[in-house]
Amino acid sequence: MGLVPQRWARLGIGMYFGGFALAMSLFGVIFPQPQQIIPFVGAIGGGLAFLFAGVCIAVSGISETQRNAEV
After folding, report:
1. Which of 5, 20, 38, 55 is 20 to 30 Å apart from 71, CA to CA?
2. Taking CA 13 as the corner, what is the angle to CA 64 and CA 23, rounded to the nearest 5 degrees?
3. pLDDT score for 35
4. Is the pTM of this model over 0.70?
5. Three-state SS for 47?
């Protein structure tokens, strides 16, 4: 069983790709000169992004476990 009900699967996929497109569109606005980002700052940003993704995955796993326990 997935995290998204079948009837909402297409919406979830669209939001995923739409969010990615939005992020790519705003990247140039947020970082007008990306060549000036030093590697240390890039590594910190990448680490924070992975940490945030891990927290989101952990929270979704906890909510899925609780939902399965209620059934």
Report:
1. 55
2. 105
3. 86
4. no
5. helix
